[in-house]
Amino acid sequence: MSKLMAASNSNLVDYSFLFLIWIVSNLMVRFLIKTCTNSRATVRNPPTPLALPILGHLHLLSKKLPESFESLARCYGPLMQIRVGGTTFVVASTAAVAKDMLKTHDSEFASRCEFGPTEYNIYSGAGFITGPNGSYWRFMKKLCMTKLFAGPQLDRFNHIREQENTNLLKSLLKRSREEEACDLSTELTTLTNNLICRMALSKRCSDNATGAKEVRTLVLEITGLGAKLGVYEVFGPLKKLDIFGNGKKLVEGLWRYDRFMEQIMKDYEDDMVGGEGKEGADLMSIVLEAYKDTNAEVKLTRKQIKFFFKELFMASIDTLSAAIQWTMAELINHPQVFKKLREEIHTVVGSSRLVKESDVPNLPYLQAIVKESLRLHPPPLIHRESTKDCKINGFDIKAKTKMVINAYAIMRDPDYWNDPGEFVPERFLVNSNDNLRSQHRMEIKDPDFNYLPFGGGRRGCFGATHALLVTHVTVGALTQCFDWKVKDGEKIDVHVGSGFSGPMELPLVCYPITRFDPFEAKATMKFPSNGS
Fold first, then answer.
1. Domain edges within the chain
2. So what CATH class is 58-514?
């Protein structure tokens, strides 16, 4: 009997234990269901395409990311979530969403995200253009807006722009006399290289005797290695293995750049002590003055200064060169527009001198051409990072979310722009009857965010004024002085290549045919000419 009772008690304990497990399990399942249900009800993430393991959405993207994003947005809406390997970001594709981000929630998107190999960046945390919204960024923006790229400083650089434009024209005139084709892409990159180098360091990048050329070469090398390492983002954890040694090469290149810049800074400081330096002569002088100012709001570090100039070279030279190349390509491909621009320049400037910066306000068609070219061929993607949780277009965006605004898609949106894929400068002329939907958009800063060639919000491009000065005068001079014959064809191939600046896929190779030589003792224009 005692054995039966013992067995019964044992079974009762077992059943009780199982019953307890069942109750706990039931409660846990209910809790999980309730949590998931509430999560779905309260958190609304942007829609996303079906992703593959490891690769994410790589199979849906081409090397021309803006076009891929534009196609996906037609299926998944103006705000969607994309994952490439281990990196997830949200893409905005309409002006309304861009306005929500860059105006309504500008403070939440006042930081920029970094893509690529941050683990190999010896300047990590020292960025201005790519840095977070903090005291350093606010100090440097104030410095840029009041001293570095302010009106008086840009006026001080006027002679540099005139000299480098003269060098460009003389090089092309020589090609014309020798009836040689020129790679206008290379010529314009040399122009912008020398402009930025002289503004920054008072030295031309094309001069073999100065350190500016080495600095520019190193920046190109670093950019190329960074692009190769950026591909590793696709492979998630594998990016840290540095399989091909590009990470090591990048670090070595950065340290070589660091040593060059350190020597340049010391040379400047020696000149300042010896009284040889000129106050405000170039950007390095101004930045070092701020560095030595004991009463400055923020104490700059040498690391920050070196990285600032690296960012300046990377952000300005290629994008400015690309903008001029695209404008010339469109003009060559549209002879009637070319003719109309030349007639405007002839009417305003005359036939005895070269077009100047002071002429630009009186050349509205030239301004319209540049605006239209920037609309069709902008730096295509704008990067941001959210600093706080917020709602955009009805979706929940968490803090630290990487955001990409597809400026390419916004400025080709058929709901706003008539014939969005066509080159029609007249749409930017206020008195034009064409393209009425967009004719009132004469200003670079569009309050409705349908036009974003220089970004928007507080992180918009601070160098826009300088870029427009150079683009207007260079395009005007190339139109005034030359006819252009395309090598191996009648039209320029206007397909976009890969890269941050949205460059042309193929070099801009053509023959310059002299129409007006501004350097002759008595300059005269030749009439008639091709396209005029």
1. 58-514
2. mainly alpha
